[in-house]
Each structure stands twice: as structure tokens, then as C-alpha cells.
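Could someone model S-adenosylmethionine with this protein?
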Amino acid sequence: MNTKTVTSLTNGTVKAVRALHMRKEREESGLFLAEGLKIVIEAIDCGHAPKIVMYGPDAADHPMLKKAVAACVKAGGEVIEVNREILEKVSRRDNPQAVVAVFKQVFTPLSAIAPESAPCWVAMQAVRDPGNLGTVIRTADAAGCGGVILVGDCVDPYSVEGVRATMGSIFAVKIAKATVQEFLAWRETWPGSVVGTLLTATVDHKSADYVKPSLILMGNEQQGLPPELAAACDVNVKIPMRGRADSLNLSVATGIMIYTVTG
Ligand code: SAM
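Reply:
Sure, complex below.
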């Protein structure tokens, strides 16, 4: 294979890949890190060629590695073989994946979203937890949603932890971001139902009439949906809380809503 071997943590490529744990570095470079050969292959199948492929001794003979290396080389990227210590440092894990790769971030402009291309879309307002966001992206993909729109000050969908939680779905659905004002203006053009989720809503999530394409709007983990966004929805619904818990985890509530709306 067309690769070089690197054994030093001071190697420039290794340093650049490790730096992608920092949001500032991801924003400046427009790149992010994805871990695991299966996810790298899924990315390639979705049309995303890796900029860098880094693999350890455990993956060197894996038949699928050739495909990842070929896609990277074809796109003018860099392939390096590293030792386990480097993989541990890059992934910040004792038990790292044998392959990690660097990809270009993709954000779809709101104006490029075709609502009718999917029965359901999800908007997340000020989501803070990368695991929640990654899980929502994975669930949106699994249920056939078109994508996830990040509204306001949200966690980075391309954080290492968030990408891990997507299990590869970050490559399969559209990701957009908008300020609250941009979202409110765009929402005016939405052809189907815009559905808010509120603990104070009086409409049960199963009894609402959802016109497709539906846009589900989820609130922040601590404060919930702010009044100006709730007021901009066609309907606000609540998932019944029957025990002592006063709310559901954000990603669980989103999953219930996605499958309720899409049937
Ligand atoms: N203290 C917050 C509040 O009063 O809204 C709790 C927020 S909850 C942890 C995070 C988000 O998950 C909510 O904004 C809402 O979008 C969704 N959510 C959680 N439980 C829900 C429920 N029972 N019905 C509807 N949405 C729910």
C-alpha cells in the first residue's frame, strides 16, 4: 500500500489529527475525526473521501483497509501507519479503534434544504451535550429523516464524542445551522407541520395531526424551548410523564417524537 510509517508523536500529521479534539482547531481547519474502519467505509460509500487515514498494526491486513486507503489516495490525501501508542493518544482511549480518519465538515445551508425530500426533519435549539446530539443524528438517520438543523448556540456536531455517538450517521443526514432569527424566517416557508415539544403543552404527542414534511423542534437540556420558538410552532406537544421524572432525556424524547411523526 501507498503509505508511510510514523512512530513519533511529534510528527506533523499526528499533531494535526490530535488537535482536532479542540473545537477551535476544527472550526479553523473545517476538518473532523472519525474512528473505526466500518465508519470510514460508510463515509466513503456516502461520497466522503478521507483527507487522512491513520491505521495501526491490527488493521494492516484488513481487506477493507485497502478501500479506505484507495479512496484517500485518489482524493490526494495522506495515509500513515502508526503504532498503538499513537492511536491511543489520537483517540484519547486505552482501547482505540485500529483505524481513524480525518474528513471535511459539511454544513448544508438552510436555503439548500428541500423539505419534501424527507417526511421528517429535526431542529435542536441550543443542544449542549455532544452525546445527545450524536444520538439524535443517529436516530434521525435510522428513521429516514432528512437532517438535523442546529438552532442558536449548539454544541459542535463534529466533536469527537458527538461523531462517536452518531456511529457513522453524521455522513448520512444533512446538518445545518442557523441563528434563532434565521430559523424563524426559514420556518415561515416550511410546507408541513412545525412541531414544538414542551413540558407545559396540553396536546398529547400521539393525538396531534402531523402534516408531512414535519419539522420537530426540540429544546435545550436545561431550559427547554424558549417562548419565542414555541410560539412559532403550528402545534406544541407533550409526551406523557407518568412517574416521578418530570422530563425525558433530550435524545430519548427526540427519538419518540421522530417515530411518532413518521409512523
Ligand atoms: N427543564 C426543562 C424544561 O422545563 O423544558 C427540561 C428540558 S428536557 C430535559 C429537554 C427537551 O427534551 C425539552 O425541551 C423537550 O424538547 C424534550 N422533552 C423532554 N421531555 C419531554 C416531554 N415529556 N414531552 C415533550 N418534550 C420533552
